[in-house]
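When time allows, look over one protein, given below as sequence and C-alpha cells. The question is which stretches look regular and which look disordered:
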Amino acid sequence: MILTRILGFLEKRQVASLAEIAQAVGSPPDAVRNMLHTLQRKGLVHPYQPQGGCGSRCRQCAQGSAELYAHGAAPVQAVDVTQCGLIARDH
C-alpha cells in the first residue's frame, strides 16, 4: 500500500520534500499530497518548516519553496497563558 511506503520513507529520512516522496513511491505529487494529508490527520506526519533555510549563507536555496514533510506528529508549541484573556487571574 502506498501509505505504508510513504510512512516508511519518512521514517528513514525523517524529513523529505513532496517531490522526493513522490519519486520514492512512484506516484504523482498531487496524489502523494492527498495521502500525506491522510497521514497528517492520523498524527503520523506533519508539514515541516525549517528554521533559516539550509544553513548556508549563499541564499541560493529558495527558502519556503519546497513543500517539506516530517515523520511523526507536529511538535507542540508552548503558549504563554499569561497573555490569554480566557484564563482567570488571581489578583
Remarks:
- The radius of gyration is 17 Å.
- Residues 63 and 83 are 31 Å apart (CA to CA).
- Strands lie at 15-17, 45-48, 68-71.
